[in-house]
């Protein structure tokens, strides 16, 4: 019994040690990648966040609301495919600001982000309204979308 515990602890310690070594290794700076992503010297860049809020229109007809939301999701996919949206998603609980969801747009222009959010059928229908904020984050953020497709079995 002691031997099994010793082997298990030794194995665990080896794994943790390897993980720490890997974490300690500094990635090599990739100028080509940084330039292609528009990164500054810190690996960051400007984006625009759009916070979707509850709009003034309430659609009672479930079929009509379903169409609007299907159009909303299709539009998100289109904007993501075009490289305009890098993050999109709903909030999972109510909040005092009535934020329903958010987009992070791959632009530093609030005007351009507003043009893009206005293509959303739910915004057009008045189901959602929005607030726009400039934001500074990792220039590598758009790269996660490629991997998202690898881990999602179905799309909403």
Overall description:
It comes from Chryseobacterium herbae. Keywords: Signal. Belongs to the YciI family. By secondary structure, the protein is an alpha+beta fold. 45% of the residues lie in helices and 22% in strands. It has 6 helices and 4 strands. It has a 4-stranded antiparallel sheet. β2 and β3 form a beta hairpin. The longest helix is centred in the first third of the chain and has 23 residues. It starts with a helix and ends in a 5-residue tail after the last helix. The N terminus is likely disordered.
Summarize the structure.
45% of the residues lie in helices and 22% in strands.
Task: Summarize the topology.
Layout: H1 2-24, H2 31-37, E1 44-54, H3 62-81, E2 85-90, E3 99-105, H4 110-117, H5 121-124, E4 128-138, H6 144-151
Antiparallel strand pairs: 1-3, 1-4, 2-3
Largest sheet: 4 strands, antiparallel
Gyration radius, to the nearest Å? 22 Å
Question: What percent of residues adopt helix (DSSP H or I)?
Answer: 40-55%
Structural class: alpha+beta
Spatial gap, N to C terminus: 50 Å
Strand order of the largest sheet: 2-3-1-4
Series of secondary-structure elements, N-terminal to C-terminal? HHEHEEHHEH
Shape: globular
Q: Uncertain runs with pLDDT below 50, 5 residues or more?
A: 1-7
User: In total, how many beta strands?
Assistant: 4
Count up the helices: 6
Share in β-strands: 15-25%
Average per-residue pLDDT, rounded, comes to 87
